[in-house]
């Protein structure tokens, strides 16, 4: 009798709310320093997907490595905005793409070196940040990489000649420079890759939910919702 009662309790318990983790990665995820509320292009798309799916969820911002590791290790946890790479494909279930992300090399104003491609930067050191897909890509391809704990630290490190160039997402780099009033000192000089950012979910999240989220995201493309969100952040 006790086992039957236990079974009934388990079956009638409410579904576990999703835990969504992220980082400050403007304009895709923008964390308000005071309130810790998260906005941004990817964030608004994910929130709309959850609303249409009638999904309970929380969003919490962490340093990137912690946000990423939580989604790998914890049930019912997803992380965004996550670059989908061949090395990461089997680690998660994927919802997206949410947005495209151009990878750029940034240099100090007045730097006369004008690389035509990434291979020309092999002799130089490049700043990136720990755990980021760009850093992983550069290390895998044999570049000398100086890793920061956060991408926000890299502009000052570049200006202090800690490394020769800075590799980051185009829009993120421009947002960081604007935030730090350094737009007149550092600028993007070389596009070297374009990737897509996703909501990456723990392998234990119900596959049916992943399919539903992807279908909703596709419907948001068709009905113009995704474009409307993107246009808000282009003003």
UniProtKB/TrEMBL annotation:
> Which residue intervals define the domain Solute-binding protein family 3/N-terminal in the entry?
21-233
Residues spanning the signal sequence: 1-17
* Keyword tags: Signal
Q: Name one Pfam family in it.
A: SBP_bac_3
Establish whether keyword Signal is in the entry.
yes
Query: What protein name applies here?
Result: ABC transporter substrate-binding protein
Task: Please name the source species.
Answer: Iodobacter fluviatilis
Task: Give the source lineage, highest ranks first.
Answer: Bacteria, Pseudomonadati, Pseudomonadota, Betaproteobacteria, Neisseriales
């Amino acid at each position: 009798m006790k086992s039957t009662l236990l079974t009934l309790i388990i079956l009638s318990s409410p579904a576990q709310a999703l835990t969504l983790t992220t980082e400050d990665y403007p304009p895709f995820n923008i964390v308000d320093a005071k309130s810790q509320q998260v906005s941004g292009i990817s964030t608004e798309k994910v929130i709309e997907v959850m609303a249409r799916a009638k999904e309970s969820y929380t969003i919490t911002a962490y340093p990137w490595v912690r946000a990423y590791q939580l989604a790998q290790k914890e049930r019912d946890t997803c992380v965004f905005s996550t670059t989908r790479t061949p090395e990461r494909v089997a680690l998660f279930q994927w919802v997206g793409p949410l947005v495209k992300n151009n990878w750029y090399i940034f240099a100090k104003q007045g730097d006369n070196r004008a690389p035509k491609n990434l291979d020309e930067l092999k002799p130089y050191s490049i700043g990136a940040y720990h755990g980021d897909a760009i850093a992983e890509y550069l290390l895998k391809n044999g570049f000398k990489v100086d890793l920061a704990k956060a991408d926000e630290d890299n502009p000052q490190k570049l200006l202090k000649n800690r490394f020769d160039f800075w590799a980051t997402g185009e829009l993120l780099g421009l947002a960081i420079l604007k935030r730090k009033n350094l737009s007149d000192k550092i600028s993007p000089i070389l596009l070297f890759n374009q990737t897509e950012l996703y909501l990456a979910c723990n392998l234990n999240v119900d596959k049916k939910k992943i399919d539903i989220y992807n279908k909703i995201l596709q419907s948001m493309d068709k009905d113009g919702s995704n474009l409307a969100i993107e246009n808000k952040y282009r003003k």
